[in-house]
Records
---
Amino acid sequence: MFGIKADPNNFDLEVVVLGSHLIDDYGLLYFLLSLQGEIVKKYSQSNPKTYEERIDLILKMCVEAATEAVQFNCRILGVDISTGGRVNPHEGVLLHSTKLIQEWNFIDLRTPISDALHLPVWVDNDGNCAALAEKKFGQGKGVENFVTVITDTGIGGGIIHHNELVHGSTFCAAELGHIMVSLDGPECLCGSRGCIEAYASGMALQREAKKLHDEDMLLVEGMPVNNEEPVSSVHLIQAAKLGNSKADNTLTTAGVALAVGIVNILHTVNLSLVILSGVLATHYENTVKHVVSQRALTSAQGANVVTSELEEPALLGAASMVLDYTARRIY
Amino acid sequence: MFGIKADPNNFDLEVVVLGSHLIDDYGLLYFLLSLQGEIVKKYSQSNPKTYEERIDLILKMCVEAATEAVQFNCRILGVDISTGGRVNPHEGVLLHSTKLIQEWNFIDLRTPISDALHLPVWVDNDGNCAALAEKKFGQGKGVENFVTVITDTGIGGGIIHHNELVHGSTFCAAELGHIMVSLDGPECLCGSRGCIEAYASGMALQREAKKLHDEDMLLVEGMPVNNEEPVSSVHLIQAAKLGNSKADNTLTTAGVALAVGIVNILHTVNLSLVILSGVLATHYENTVKHVVSQRALTSAQGANVVTSELEEPALLGAASMVLDYTARRIY
């Protein structure tokens, strides 16, 4: 079910990696990966609300995957957990999470999983994992300095400098969602204001969509109406496309805010590539390109802006760490 | 005149370094440094407006210093030029300067100076040099990750990551003055808006002081008046201290803008120390500390904020590069 049926004489295909990804409140995923970075099997469950249930489910899923892999004559090299929040990757400990994941602070993830599976276990922040995935399998291949900026429910990312992840002095580098582009601006979950997450994340767009909806200004002619469905960023984008100028203005401001935040990153660490990732990435790509060309210093304008081509970059990056650490090979 | 009189039997004191610093339009400095980082002699001239005159003067000053050093039985180890603008330190070439220095683009500084003096020559950006100085002689000693932010005429700085300078992919990392903290905000010399340089630099404060002056709202009772003197940031600060609330508000906004920019740096590369430097540093220190405690993520709030204790950090850093490269010793 989760392994790849391998030829015992072909060692390149016999190796399977387990990556696990905690994405916000949406779900808990894990998957098996071939050495070539092909996702062989992906499996998801909704993310439990409590620590106990969550850690139990992670363990159960890991054991299941390992069992399946053995049945399919495959070898699990190790486990990597990609999670939101601040992680000490040396110790495999989640220091503290964003407010998006409940009961998820000061948690040793390495010990219980390693004890249960007798496998090496790594843990890193999801944005960092996504950057590793781009480096190994995506558009960051061969690029020495780049950033990936992920716009989903929140905004995160990871920075590669001299081919290595930047973790920072207390493991909270690349908290890109909390780059501020306004001295006041909208309130952010973090307690500050004007963060790009408060302008351009899925949550922020949903907040704006609800505001317009409450004023009866969201729906426009031609929009399919489903009263059961909660108002979300999808409706805002749809309304803008159908000519709702208020929705369009909101989205433009969101895109400009994200882009100005990205220019700030470029002016701080001067990268040659920006990889936009997450469900809103394609939506923001053109605005980011335009704003970089308008507001970055000439010397920083050379940075390429692209959209990620990877499916599940955080997950893929988690698995790539296992490959890199255990196999120590160049693929 | 510029050397240190050395005991030929004491090799530690016999070594002298020449550092040269182009500070904006104000002046061209050079100095001699003992191995212990003590400034033995500092000499300055006003910075000529044209390339020809400037390069001639640099050469003349270098030759003078070298001659003096020999007369005093000292040895010049090398020359380092610290300059505003973007520098390729590997090739000793100034790629392009800020608008503050005229006729200062695509200039090979290494060749003419090296040819004239038969000495190794290094070149780097002044903000980067200042960071090196803090690392070697200042509060960055023994600190793995820190930033120095310099508020003078403009705003610049340098970032140390894993004990090394961050130069970036096109040598324009740490363009800290052009971190934007507003989607609109005041116009900046760089062509964008809302840059911290446009809020909190000496130029920005002067612009605001002039505005108030033109409206007859700058001077308050008790302020010494000198009609000959051009209106500057000094007057704004003085007026604020004497109770001018408009001047005080302007300065508070400037400080908050600078601080929000600094929080953005912390959220990007997560440093453990912020060293404020430049003539306005002490003025901004408290505001920066306060804003970091209010608006940085809990995990980034541990960053220490201090004011530089170094005299001429850019110059000192330039000289420290010479020491590091030629002597390869730990001091």
Note: Residues 208 and 250 of chain A are 7 Å apart (CA to CA).
---
Amino acid sequence: MFEFDILQQEGRARRATFRTPHGTVTTPMFMPVGTQGTVKGISPQELLDIGSQIVLANTYHLMLRPGEQLVAAHGGLPGFTAYPGPFLTDSGGFQVMSLGHMRKITEQGVTFKSHLDGSRVELTPERSVEVQEALGADVIMAFDECPPYPAEPLYLQRSLERTVRWLERCLEAKTREDQALFAIVQGGTSGELREQSLALTLPFATPGFAIGGLAVGEPKEEMFPAVALTTGRLPAHKPRYLMGVGHPEDLIAGVALGVDMFDCVYPTRTGRFGYALTDDGRLNLNSSAPRRQLEPIDSGCDCYACRSYTRAYLAHLIRAEEMLAPRMLSLHNLRYLHRLMARAGDALQQGTFFNWATAWGERYFRQEVPAWFQKALETGAGI
Amino acid sequence: MFEFDILQQEGRARRATFRTPHGTVTTPMFMPVGTQGTVKGISPQELLDIGSQIVLANTYHLMLRPGEQLVAAHGGLPGFTAYPGPFLTDSGGFQVMSLGHMRKITEQGVTFKSHLDGSRVELTPERSVEVQEALGADVIMAFDECPPYPAEPLYLQRSLERTVRWLERCLEAKTREDQALFAIVQGGTSGELREQSLALTLPFATPGFAIGGLAVGEPKEEMFPAVALTTGRLPAHKPRYLMGVGHPEDLIAGVALGVDMFDCVYPTRTGRFGYALTDDGRLNLNSSAPRRQLEPIDSGCDCYACRSYTRAYLAHLIRAEEMLAPRMLSLHNLRYLHRLMARAGDALQQGTFFNWATAWGERYFRQEVPAWFQKALETGAGI
């Protein structure tokens, strides 16, 4: 179980299979986020249709509502949500920081007031593992602190050290053999602190490693060197998961640097706001031009929305505030990211990944390829 | 084209096929409402999956936004909405009354201010037909006035006479051979006025007739005798459409009285509010009991929601305000009404419709069958 087999490698980029109790998935891959036990507006059948492989669910949300015991009574997340494939749950740490009120961090864990009813809740490494075991995902995450950006170096250092002690307690608390617990490397954008976190975390030899503490507001010029440093030190034969990253250009740069797994609410959220992802950048269907365009969002896309609808129809749905609009744009955007990762995988199979990624970037950025993207590709290619 | 063939008859109730340019449908049937060119939250593929046969669209809404010319540029409603089957458009008259501001009715037609932008719009019999021809539905409706309930008899009489003059103008204006225009019988709940409307309307010998002016707030004790009077006078070999009716008990009573077609926003609207239709009445998924129930809405239902989800999961989605909740409850409710009409058709095939309908009513009303329902079944059965 949890075997990770690299099928192709080109520079740092790799294509691999990752075996989980609910199925074997192929990386690089984007994982849709089903915060409250549903990818917003999308059915499990549609997730299967568009090629989703692992679905995320949020420990913080599900422990507060409906409570992890109800999910366990359904046999875990697949029974509860009707998505039959693998799941990944986060630890709840990140949401406590972003959604909990009056939160207080101690060595023991975090206490906070629920954003739903203001009740006082405690989340500790042990409690996070207990909830994640009840939810029953295939991959579970160590309870960590994700500090904000910017943060003082001293705070970052104390936090990353505590996160390592919490990791140890998570592993101690863990009882299920059919769940892989991934450790999370922290350290913000500081090379020195990343190195410290890596030195303290790698000895735990968890079956996979996440890169945390990034995509929290820092510039990409700082984020991707931190990714590069981390993937350069992580063990080659274990999956690497860059948390909270979902913009197309960030996925390509991440794959170039050797990342295998990504997740983000971005494709569904931007879809609900009326935006569609394409190789030519983000299409704004709230603007006036699409209202008269009789072509699909993307004639090269095989999603239901692109096979069925014109831009004019979808723009009409948005103006009419029809539920089908966020549904169809979310579906298209998820399919776009799944196809993007499949295309990256195809290029890796053919040994043409860096050429393909360069060409993709030139079209996406309309010839104005930013330096951070160029640099990520060069670092990944070993230039 | 537009052949209506009665396959079985039992008392007044009948099962028939109705041929349209976009396909042959089987009656009795319920038609989902796609007001703005989409059945709220439901994809065309899902409509096909659950057995929808004809989809309604609203002339008033589509002429105001996006404008009928954009729909025509897509080749009409099937190209615009991606639903490949037959459509029916209403005339716009009803919505002008319920949504238009500052409306003024004259012999010429109706002027009103758009509920979207306040602009002054005129709708006449000729304009209604023009818009409906651009939308391209298989069945189009005569431009009529649907008076409120209650209304003065004198007003009702003048209105129904004007509606007949408008019918004549609609037929005059109509140019497309591939669209069937249905006349609408008015007259409120007055037997005398219904008779007058019938006497004036029947000579036009349109390919189908609608029963209008009902389900606008009158008690069922007044509504169903008006239905019974009308179906008793309509020609046998043409389809009969009871407008705006969609409660399960009203469909059964209507079928008993010889109605073939129904439409209503009820199943999707009540679904968005968290209610599910079942043979045992309406299930309120907002209440606390379903939150712990691990069974489906209806174990006898074959819809995606019932095959995939527990009541507890759906109740969680409602509390979490997740889009999948209204989507799944709308889907279930539409499927429930389609199955209800298919079951009525099966009973008609077996010559057991009135027995089946009586048993259905006893379960649905929990033994307390209302007199109006009982009376409708008796009238339909010829007792």
Note: The longest strand of chain A covers residues 13-20.
